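Continuing the batch. This is chain 6 of the set; chains 1 through 5 are on the previous pages. Same settings as before, nothing changed between runs. Recording input and output for traceability.
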Amino acid sequence: MNSNLEPKPFVSIVLPAHNEETYIDSCLSALKIQNYPEDRFEVIVVDNKSKDRTVEIAKSFGVKVLHKDQGPVGAVRNFGARHAKGDIIAFLDSDCVAPPNWLETGVQLISTKKNTAFGGPYMLREAPYWLEKFWLLEDSDLPKSLLGGAIFINKRHFFAVGAFSESITSGEDSQLTYDLRAANYDVIVRKELAVVHLGNPTNIKTFFWRQVWHSENYIQNIKSSLTDPTFYIILLYISSISMSVLWLASGKFAHALPTISFALFLPLILSAKRIKRSKYPIQNILNILAIYALDWTYLTGRSLGLFKSLGKWLRVLK
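Output for chain 6:
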């Protein structure tokens, strides 16, 4: 009787991986227990020149392992997509853990809305590090753009808009969102497609450089950047810091005080916005200081990333 039923769509799950030996076991183990027929999906791990046991661990799961040594993460994802057999591609990161119904839910959603790409948000691990807890604040708001580690998309639509950008080192998921909407495809982020992200920064140094990396294509993604209110706060932060340095260098300390105060006030705007949006229960002043410190680090890292982006743009002009 079941033999007469139409088989479920075949899905290709593409995982980029670079030195992911810490988390890829958890990621692939979760895919082994999906409540989706195992003969109706494949897992493609695209190794990006890992120097640890990433490839060894991936092969132990019997999944397809490809190698793409050159290019940013967008190029690595695209390489896997080009080798995908499925009409539906699910992009997942190697440091993310999907719930057992992730594939089933994603296929149901994309099958009911044909011209739509679906994404999911990131969730915290069960026992998060302090930095994860105070940065993410268990935000109840869904992101407005796709996140690279949780995407379901029709393969034909994906390549119709040019796939992920291979000219930028970060923000390729936001750019894909922009390209899809510009081509009149719908993009919807659903809570049911959430995955646990294990690769969040767990210390200030890693967090700072992650923000630099995320912002080093602001100029290259200028159309998307100009639609992001945070981009303008970063510009104000850079301007106020620059003015403060100029006033201090000229010995005009009284003139520097307002610009320094304004620079210190800007992270507070982000902190207040995040606390209000997440409804995070503040327990003491130390909670507020931790949240503020992360927003200050965020703005500082993003500012450095913007300068790196500007430098890349100027080198191209030359």
